[in-house]
Amino acid sequence: SIIPDYLAQALGDVESDTSGRLADYIPELAAADPERLGAVFATVDGEVYGAGDIDTEFTIQSISKPFAYALALADRGFDPVLAKVGVEPSGEAFNQISLEIDTGRPLNPMINAGAITAHSLAGSEDMNPSERVERVVRGLSAFAGRPLEIDESVCVSEMEHAHRNLAIAHMLRSYGILTENPRDVVEGYTRQCSVLVTARDLAMMAATLANRGVNPLSGERVIHEPVVRQVLSVMSTCGMYDAAGDWATQVGIPAKSGVAGGLIGALPGQIGIATFSPRLDAHGNSVRGVSLFERFSSDMGLHVMEVP
Length: 308
Ligand code: GLN
Known about the structure:
Its EC number is 3.5.1.2. The protein is α+β, with helices and mostly antiparallel strands.
């Protein structure tokens, strides 16, 4: 296949771009090697192609959000989830304290307010906080097709500085959107964000979305098609935060970024793509990841609004 050579060349072309900064509001993330760079394509028929640092582990961070949202929809059904988390793009930063004025409902599940709520809705209502985390980690693992683990030091590091997410959770509790102890929910959400993945894992997770909810390698049906459609729709409108409009026009692939430098895209019926490069732009999206996706989209005509 020519794909690995193509990927290696694309990495070579963006390698010299050292712009952007590591996330440092989570001190442990500032210790990452900023030079890491990798890209993986995983097709819906189970082919996996990669170049660069594709087996280096890093924390999933916000890329967990669409998958936890999927689990909440699968476990509780659409109506109970939609009653507590909207689907409107916020056009705001990921950590914006933004809730609907009258109801307190977070605008969408990709910003922290909505993701903290979605975490609380994964699993069944009667689960305790650690059972819920277990449910989420098991679910993320099914998407990836291998058992994933939590990076405890990143989790502790984030919890020590989680004042903003705690504030958001207390607001949500005051509106009755959260019914549990806000600290427990933030801790669970932070554990979810601290799950360790590789670019290869992320590509498989994206490929599972691209493949109607069935992991292309394990063959496991992780979620049903209506949930896939809901999740991909929300990714395409809200996945890149306040850069969602630029992304929709330039790249045109449902996507999600994380502050540890991961970035995924899922093209229905075709392919899951993941990149890893830790330096971030002002929106909190990976600089070299965004460049790579722009290139992949234009080289291969992957924009969903283009006729193939
Ligand atoms: N755990 C991070 C937070 O809640 C995730 C943010 C992100 O990846 N954009 O702030």
